[in-house]
Amino acid sequence: MVGLGLVVVLSSGLFASCTTDSSSPPTITVDLSEAPGQVTSVPLDGTVTTPGALLAEPDGSLLIGDRLTGRINRVGADGRDDPDPVAVVEVAGAAGDQRGLLGLARTSDGRLFASWTRAEDGRLVVGELADKEAVRLVWLGPVSADAANGGRLVAALDGLVIGIGDLLQDRGLADVADVPNRKVLWLDPDGPDQQSPRILSTGWNNPFALAVGPTGEVWVADNTGGEGPERLGRADQPAGESASLGGPGEGQVAPAGLVVLEDSFAVCGFLSGRVDRVVIAGDAMATTAAVVTRPCRTGVVRLADGRLAMGTDDGVVVTTTPVS
Fold this sequence. Notes:
The chain has one domain (7-319): Neuraminidase (6 Propeller), CATH 2.120.10.30. Helices cover 0% and strands 45% of the residues. β9 and β10 form a beta hairpin. It has no helices and 26 strands.
């Protein structure tokens, strides 16, 4: 197939260039000459219409959390949707905001956890799920905002890791240790709901997309609401040391999902509507990317067989072949 033959450079400035100077973040190149992979829709029973959280299970199944209803469904490895929900949490959220059921994670001992904006007070919380409901709160987080909440969740580093955005508040709160704003936090899955999270890193815009690497390290694809560049970096390193994904403004991707591949990353963009392959090579953090597939808007995970499952505006699609 003949490609488009177009290269677009994404950076924190419109005409910025890649450099090894640590004071200037590297750029990411998107090669649009690659044809996107083919996808097929996941047949759902109509109970999930706003997929907001995806979790790939070891047995090949997929958990899909509906952002606005708080309902979590399982789609088996055979592609069949189980009409009986795994769990349901009561959420606060609306079609025009970024609240609701936001994250799902399963720890190594098999327990299922979720993050959501609680219906009764709009606070961002993390809880353990069992018997089709939330049975125990792990963390009572901040009052949510219409946007920039973060809220994605992964199981890593012998605990739970969650990213919190600026919550539409003063960006200087990134430097205040006892507030969660603009930070990646570690939570004890057995801790009380009033636990004080451990700060892994700070200075992010909205560290929304999280993924765990092959050695257990956590990566972040950082969102931006127009202030500061979008970035990709390690969750345990300062945001200022990460690579630039583009924006604000032209070139913004709005990362909504992240997958660590064998030698690269798959980044789902809410604004771009696609999955880009991002490569970070060498000490200079030089980065390149190509379009992997589309559509993708609300998240991406890698299934046990290597295929990618992606959230769209109103459903879930899966690549027809593994992505490596």
